[in-house]
Amino acid sequence: MTIQLFNTLTGRIEELSPSDGKALRMYACGPTVYDYGHIGNFRTFLQVDVLRRFLKLEGITPKHVMNITDVDDKIIRNAAAAGVSISEYTQKYEKAFFEDLNALAVEKPEIIARATEHIPSMVALIEKLAAQDCAYKTEDGSWYFRIAKFPDYGKLSKKDFSGITDGARVDVDEYDKDSARDFALWKAPKPGERKWETALGPGRPGWHIECSAMATEYLGDSFDLHAGGEDLMFPHHENEIAQSESASHKTFAHHWFHVRFLLVEGRKMSKSEGNFYTLRDLLLKGHKASAIRMLLISVPYRQQLNFTFDGLAAETGAVERLRTFHERVRGVVPAPQENAELAAETAKSRESFHAALANDLNTAEARAAIFDLVRAGNAAIDAGTVGRENAAAMLAVLDDFDQVFAVLEDRDAEWTRAALDWAEREGRLGEASAEVVAQSALSDDQIQELVDERTQAKRARNFARADQIRNELAEKGILLEDSKDGVRWKRK
RNA sequence: GCACCGGUGGCGAAGUGGCUAACGCGCUGGUCUGCAAAACCAGUAUUCGCCGGUUCAAUCCCGGCCCGGUGCUCCA
What does the pLDDT look like over A168-208, one tens digit per residue? Predict the structure, then answer.
């Protein structure tokens, strides 16, 4: 099955496949590690994760590079304010970032590239640009890219800069550059700032040159796909193209993948709106990591997603239903006969699932195909008409599903616990909801003890005591389910 | 202001020029259960922002309007 994916550069849906016949070389813009990641950040990383997981499912090996921007103006400012070194400051947030990705079941890219560890390749790239008169040094010792030397500037974001004359709207003198649009490649140090001594002079890299240099170092002058949030299209990605293609005279990335922003409760997420959430905020309020992942990937990446708490609750239920079904199928007692109708439904579900993702990563349709199977499967289990092969086939489809969606394994309590431990260390335990604290205070063993006691009470037909225990547990966010094979409990 | 994207049931959301407008959650009734929960069955938009147009036929195509979002500026 060929994978069709929208390409921002051409504005069309095009086939995605490894141009070298081996690995799909992709570069995704990573975080600037100056604070904890918010759910908008994670939507992008999750959608890229869906892409790379689907590639693997289709037998394509990704070679995925993600950068970590660990030096920039905000980092320098915040580190100074906190009175720590830049590396000390960024280490904390980089660690937090990877913990968050882990909680959201985002696979680690093959290569993680820190800006501060790639200064020599950035310097080399700037020198290469300077040799072609595409870069110039200003009086303060900074280097800029000369946009006038790159006529294709604007081809990604579809902007036409030909009509813009320098000085018309912006006072060029103020910038000490040849043209107001020219962007910094290398920034001269201000007094006391972290700086690198290089052939270009002292200073630190501009943001855009990082990605160009690191992408080229690991993936070559020309590679398959470049990903990022929609806001990066201009100027960041446009600038990457200008730098890289000016230096190499080759197409930088063939395919450009941009993930749209999300809204929170119908409004743009912002601190001033009071609807700004980090992953940790949500975990402390008792939302499950799996439900957050499910919600953030269920709306196709090119659509605006409205993140709401109702939606999050709905996804919690959806994930639960999938997990329950998965367990039911695994524990099914096979009927002597195979169910031809169910076999057909299963095959159809599998086919629709793959086709939906191959069609520009339509996660909403892919998900719908799985729920069609859930319904058919549950009905057949209830009727006792699931054969051995039926069960195996359904498990295979669920396995395919989970290789991309990654929500069936329940590690939610672990991530919530980790968030609580973090909040305690940071003195932010007050932000956790009472129910989360109560629920986490109960260990699995303690819960099991109470469940066993209730089972005894039930056997003795002491329903009052049994219901009392069930209610007490419910208050602490523990739900019980009686079934033929005993009691199943779960954290709400 | 200019450019681009979107407006589908109670909520989220897919989709298509004509077939019952997916799927999830919610809600109502039923089956099952000591009671619940889970699971299943049935029901839950004569209708796809508004107004025109094209067409035998439009939610889907075209034009205008209204609303939301994004980019043009640091931002995933």
Answer: 334 444 456 777 789 999 999 988 888 999 999 999 999 99
In the DSSP assignment, the letter for residue A234 is I
Residue A51, domain extent: 3-259
Which of A214, A237, A259 is at the close of a domain? A259
**Phi, psi angles (nearest 5°) of residue A23:** -120, 150
Work out whether the CA dihedral A178, A182, A188, A190 comes out positive or negative.
Answer: positive
- A285 and A198 together in one domain: no
pLDDT for A267 equals: 83
Distance, Å, A315 CA → B59 C1': 27
Q: Say what the alpha-carbon torsion angle A225, A230, A233, A237 is, to the nearest 10 degrees.
A: -50
Q: Name the β-bridge partners of A112.
A: A66
Count of domains observed in chain A: 3
In this structure, the answer to whether residues A243 and A271 fall within a common structural domain is no
Asked if omega into A109 is within 30° of 0 (cis), the reply is no
* Chain B bases near protein Cβ (<7 Å): 3, 5-6, 11-15, 22-26, 33-41, 68-76
Is the interface score ipTM higher than 0.90? Answer: yes
> Which nucleotide has the least CA–C1' distance to A319?
B24
Answer whether A218's CB lies under 8 Å from A113's CB: yes
pLDDT one-digit tens code per residue, A280-289: 999 999 999 9
C-beta atoms surrounding A465 within 10 Å: 14
CA nearest neighbour of A16 among A228, A230, A224: A224
Q: Are residues A127 and A33 in the same domain?
A: yes
What pLDDT score was predicted for residue A96?
97
In this structure, the answer to whether residues A303 and A442 fall within a common structural domain is no
What value, to the nearest 5°, has the Cα angle with vertex A360 and ends A355 and A364? Answer: 70
Which residue carries 């660990």 as its tokens? A70
A60 and A173 share one domain: yes
Q: Are residues A95 and A116 in the same domain?
A: yes
User: A385 and A372, same structural domain?
Assistant: yes
CA dist., res. A246 & res. A254, Å (int): 16
d(CA A224, CA A25): 5
CATH number at residue A18: 3.40.50.620
Q: Which residue is nearest to nucleotide B37 (CA to C1')?
A: A481
Output the distance from A376 CA to B44 C1' rounded to whole Å: 21
- Of A39, A54, A108, nearest to A362 (Cα)? A54
Which of A232, A259, A286 represents a domain boundary (last residue)? A259
A253 & A271 share domain: no
